[in-house]
Write a structure and sequence with these properties.
Layout lengths: L13 H10 L12 E7 L3 H12 L4 E5 L5 H6 L1 H18 L16 H15 L5 H6 L2 E5 L3 E2 L4 E4 L2 E10 L3 E3 L7 H4 L16 E5 L3 H12 L3 E6 L10 H14 L2 E4 L1 E9 L2 E8 L2 E7 L1 E4 L3 E3 L6 H4 L3 E2 L3 E2 L12 E3 L10 H16 L12 E4 L4 E6 L2 H6 L4 E7 L4 H6 L5 E7 L5 E8 L2 H13 L4 H5 L10 H13 L3 H15 L2 H26 L1
Parallel strand pairs: 1-2, 1-6, 2-3, 6-18, 8-9, 8-14, 9-10
Antiparallel strand pairs: 4-5, 5-6, 7-15, 11-12, 12-13, 16-17, 19-20, 20-23, 21-22, 22-23
Helix pairs in contact: 1-5, 2-11, 4-5, 4-8
Bound molecules: flavin-adenine dinucleotide.
The site of flavin-adenine dinucleotide (FAD) has 38 residues, from helix 2, strand 2, helix 3, helix 4 and helix 11.
């Protein structure tokens, strides 16, 4: 059966044509459904792809349904394009700031925005092969292009066919939330779904929302030459992170020239002759700025609409998405969910990890809990902000007392040499023990450094063990070991210190030599007596 709906990704250059050819081939023929599937997967983002490939690899008969672009947000409008653009922006920043290393760039630094975006499209199209419909077919997965919808407790309809299943996975992800700001819809705005189609640099860009997406793209566009203003309603960027981590980022943003509008709420947008006027309130004051483009990054809404969830007996709500238990099972025991559609942690690696759990639980009666996962995450700003486990406030809420060890990067040789001293490694342990409860790292490559702490947490290794791990010198990751050393120093209680002092003071005398001498004499004397006794007998 032919799949008819042609999908266009702008600009329609050779890279985007390759992308579409891979992840939504225009002439794709859906398989003809027959028999019952072990697993039907709705949505082919990370969660869907991992579920489908894993199950098929284990011998299951699997159907994978995608209505738009296989690869979902991550490949098409999320991680992949954003990290491509961020890399280009980092290059621009490094060239512009090379003077501090004694490297003089004579003349202006020109950023070719169109070329930076083209590079991103080129890399995205290359990576898209991994997620291609053809590749999944070759893995033994029946790939259906079209909108999937439950028609009963064990049936799904797609492109005029009905698929029967023993188990199903809902992996339909999430989408950008629009804000009910007066005039916004009329003025027009960008989201992550459209921003990567740009080929011309917006000269003045307002980013609404200072979360990970807003912060990453604000810095990237600023470095690529846009004049960026970022709106955040609360009093710091990255609301989920500790304020000391956000403060470092804010200092970096302000130094670079990004306009930081904290505690600022846009009220109305007007289309004016030279752009879009944003009227906003900040600290009780009415203000306005005029920009060329507005990018919204204010959160994600789960894609629950049009799925026939009521017919399938699956509970959901519009905020949390599909409701699952610890085992990722929905109210319909045949149906599971994975990824952004059901998780509060909306990341590619959590989509991947939960899909793996679903395979075990849905197909092999596994009892793996997603709530037992140790989940790290990173915001890819410069410096990066990475976190795993609990924040101090979480521990407080749960009545757990913590000891916190903080190693500032300005005390780490490699960070000094790299000129990347803004940041820290902060580790929380359960008070009186070395059990790691959580950590935050702010550093140039915090996303790489956090893995050591995640590994320790997953492996049940305490902070004491990290102090014994030899880190090559000089690396910024030494900060992790140094934080562990700080923990070790706390084990030197006044009593232990006193005992050590006494021991060492004895070492300064000939006490130990005399003791050894007495011991040897005593041993000789004993042997002599034993010998004499033996001779007498
Ligand atoms: C700008 C941006 C940057 C990001 N950067 C990172 C990052 O650096 N690291 C990270 O870990 N995460 C990042 N994320 C988050 C990451 O992209 C998501 O967490 C991840 O894509 C979730 O995967 P998923 O499979 O759950 O959902 P999705 O990727 O959203 O996939 C769901 C799929 O289901 C399809 N679908 C929906 N309804 C139906 C239906 N009825 N029938 C058929 N198909 C349907 C959709 O078309 C979509 O393809 C970023 C997100 C954004 C927006």
């Amino acid at each position: 059966m032919n799949h008819k709906r042609a999908i266009r990704v702008m600009p329609e250059d050779t890279y985007n044509q390759t992308l579409v050819g891979n992840v939504h081939p225009p002439l794709w023929k859906n398989p003809v459904a027959s028999g019952r599937y072990n697993l039907v997967v709705i949505g082919a983002g990370t969660a869907g792809l991992v579920s489908a490939a894993g199950a098929a690899g284990l011998g299951a008969k699997v159907a994978l349904i995608e209505k738009h672009l296989i690869g979902g947000d991550c490949l098409n409008v999320g991680c992949v394009p954003s990290k491509g653009v961020i890399r280009a922006s980092r290059a621009a920043h490094e060239v512009r700031t090379a003077g501090r290393f004694g490297v003089q760039i004579n003349g202006d630094v020109e950023v070719d925005f169109a070329a930076a975006m083209e590079r991103m499209r080129k890399l995205r199209s290359r990576i898209s092969f991994h997620d291609s419909a053809e590749r999944f077919r070759s893995l033994g997965v029946d790939v259906y292009l079209g909108e999937g919808r439950f028609t009963g407790v064990d049936t799904v309809e797609v492109a005029d066919q009905t698929l029967q299943f023993s188990r199903a996975v809902i992996a339909t992800g999430a989408r950008a939330i629009a804000l009910p700001i007066e005039g916004l819809a009329d003025a027009g705005y960008l989201t992550n779904e459209t921003v990567f189609t740009l080929t011309e640099r917006p000269q003045r860009l307002a980013v609404i929302g200072g979360g990970p997406l807003g912060s990453e793209l604000s810095q990237a566009f600023h470095r690529l030459g846009s004049k960026v203003s970022i709106f955040e309603m609360s009093d710091h960027l990255l609301g989920r992170e500790d304020s000391d981590a956000a403060a470092i980022l804010q200092t970096a943003f302000s130094r670079e020239g990004i306009e930081l509008l904290l505690r600022a709420a846009p009220k109305r947008i007007e289309t004016v002759e030279d752009g879009k006027r944003i009227l906003f309130e900040q600290n009780g004051e009415e203000r306005s700025i005029v920009v060329d483009e507005i990018l919204l990054g204010v959160g994600r809404a789960p894609n629950v609409e049009g799925l026939g969830l009521d017919l399938a007996g699956v509970d959901y709500d519009n905020k949390s998405g599909v409701l699952v238990d610890d085992y990722l099972q929905t109210a319909n025991q045949r149906i599971y969910a994975a990824g952004d559609i059901c998780l509060p942690y909306k990341f590619t690696h959590t989509a991947d990890a939960t899909a793996r759990i679903v395979i075990q639980n849905a197909l092999f009666h596994g009892r793996k809990k997603w709530t037992s996962l140790t989940i790290p995450w990173t915001t890819y700003t410069d410096p990066e902000v990475a976190h795993v486990g609990m924040y101090e406030r979480d521990a407080k809420e749960q009545g757990i007392e913590v000891d916190t060890f903080i190693r500032p990067l300005e005390e780490v040789d490699r960070a000094i040499l790299d000129g990347e001293e803004e940041g820290f490694v902060k580790v929380h342990v359960k008070r009186g023990t070395d059990k790691i409860l959580g950590a935050t790292i702010v550093a140039s490559h915090a996303g790489e450094m956090i893995n050591e702490i995640s590994l320790a947490m997953v492996g049940g290794l305490g902070l004491k063990t990290l102090a014994n791990v030899i880190h090559p010198y000089p690396t910024q990751a030494e900060a992790v070991r140094q934080a562990a050393d700080m923990y070790n120093r706390t084990r030197l209680t006044p009593f232990v210190r006193k005992a050590f002092r006494f021991w060492l003071s004895l070492a300064r005398t000939d006490f130990w030599d005399r003791l050894r001498h007495y011991k040897e004499n005593a041993r000789d004397e004993l042997q002599r007596i034993l010998c004499a006794l033996r001779n007498e007998r």
